[in-house]
Amino acid sequence: MARQKRCRICKREGFIHLRYANLPLCKEHFLSRTRSVVQDTIKKFKMFSKEQKVIVAVSGGKDSMALWHILAQLDYKVEGIHIDLGLREFSMISRKISEEFAETHGLKLHVFSLKEELNYTIEDIVKKSYEKPCSVCGTIKRYMLNRLTYEMGGSVLATGHNLDDESARLMGNILNWEEEYLYRQYPVLPEEEGMVKKVKPVVFLTRKELLKYCEAEQISYVDVSCPHSRGARSLVLLDIMEMIEDKYPATKLRFVKGFYKIREKFAPSKKVELHKCVKCGMLTASNKDLCRFCRIKERMEKNEAIERT
Amino acid sequence: MARQKRCRICKREGFIHLRYANLPLCKEHFLSRTRSVVQDTIKKFKMFSKEQKVIVAVSGGKDSMALWHILAQLDYKVEGIHIDLGLREFSMISRKISEEFAETHGLKLHVFSLKEELNYTIEDIVKKSYEKPCSVCGTIKRYMLNRLTYEMGGSVLATGHNLDDESARLMGNILNWEEEYLYRQYPVLPEEEGMVKKVKPVVFLTRKELLKYCEAEQISYVDVSCPHSRGARSLVLLDIMEMIEDKYPATKLRFVKGFYKIREKFAPSKKVELHKCVKCGMLTASNKDLCRFCRIKERMEKNEAIERT
Description:
The structure is a homodimer. Chain A has helices at residues 27-44, 62-73, 88-105, 114-118, 122-127, 133-151, 163-175, 179-183, 207-216, 233-247, 251-262, 292-301; strands at 16-18, 23-25, 53-57, 77-84, 109-113, 156-158, 188-189, 197-199, 275-276, 283-284. Chain A is α/β, with parallel strands linked by helices. Chain A has a 6-stranded mixed β-sheet with strand order 5-4-3-6-8-7, sandwiched between helices. The first copy, chain A, has a two-stranded antiparallel sheet with strand order 1-2. In chain A, strand 1 (16-18) and strand 2 form a beta hairpin. Chain A binds chain B through residues 174-177, 179, 233, 236, 240, 243-244, 247-248, 251, 254-255, 258-259, 261-262, 265-266, and chain B through 174-177, 179, 233, 236, 240, 243-244, 247-248, 251, 254-255, 258-259, 261-262, 265-266.
């Protein structure tokens, strides 16, 4: 590996070279730039103010840990929420890391266990499901994070989606021209009936930047991937975007930012009809009486297979 | 390599396996299917009728040779046009192959030499240009094909862009959200003031299908790539799309067809202002008095470097 170039600003020893910006930075200037990028993103997309209670979805991975740390450093009123999915060792470690971080930094963390909430772990559900693991797990996490944020009196839910995730997901949605998903791919989704406001404050930071941020701030994180993610389409698309970025630096950022500018073109012509789930009362777009979460629960209770949506 | 599966239709020995359609076919059924796909494309996009004179841009490569052959087989009134770019051996072989094909099949071919028309070869121009070779060559070919089609009394210009080209180009335009280029990426562009109608009848056939078509019909073609194409962005994007297709068969077709359905979203809000080039009289969107082609010519005559657009 080539020796790190000196910091563009202070000429001290380089800590990272941001290839997309052709910018070598020392540790200190890298940290302040990273927090500035997040601050600018929060402002630009009117995500939240210093008075609002922001709930951070904390998985224990580098993205959410860095996000939580940055928001705390920027003096936002943040509380973490961690869902213990019951994925054997993976979940045990994730929970422990999240709890230790909260303890060390004097931050408030709410932990919910899927086993307690739903009576089943993700492990149990995946076994009974015809859906891909990431899909069924996504449904459950989205539902729980939304409901719990309301119950905790939070007005905004912040997630750690980074630029790599966002560009790979955008690529997937574009290859299939998923108009509805495209429209909903944005750094901020406003509060709608029954849906809490959702924001992605680190969406313009790469995976590498968040990793180096954790390294610089000595933040521990889970660095094994979920045991069910192997071969997932999202990982293939991450690789593809990485190859493109490698050939043409700054493509990811241009691709994602460019999309945000034209995203209104994909606004749906008519509003999706929502109704209240007859069981939990949360609003749902499902064509059944029950929302998708309650249907999964019901299927599990009846010991029946979970069908694809 | 695994043994070719038997033809889905007649159970005879397989000649090709179309992975995107999971369809093994014998030579005969492959040829008839290929021609049907082209026929359907011509109809669906109202490209041209049997009464119109269609000019095929013949480079000597597999795509344009197959296109020319298919259109002749389908009884369209086709004439070929070949531009000798003056790229040393590459152009000599391309011209010879095009001429021999016309001769053998009793088809009419018009050959134009860039050296005669413009007084310079592509080779000369590339040396004096700050633009990428593919870019300056593209400008010249588009200009000449358009003007010559008019002069030959043709009402439509057909090019051999295949699905691989189209999907790679679409990917490039999307990565940069080139709205204007996106809107103009379509299988048929109507005649506009000064611009002949342009069509891509083989846009739903892959590179592999056109290659196998030439093989089956014993059509010779130039199979060396242009000496200036090395490292071109279009080749990188072709590789990327190939990797995606390899993982998820039928993605290219879905990606391109899906785009055509939503392409209207990229319609420009105001029409591009065109004016007549003060030299050649052709319409141009250039912000200068001269069209891009005449500007290149002028620069060459003055022995000045050709600037980027």
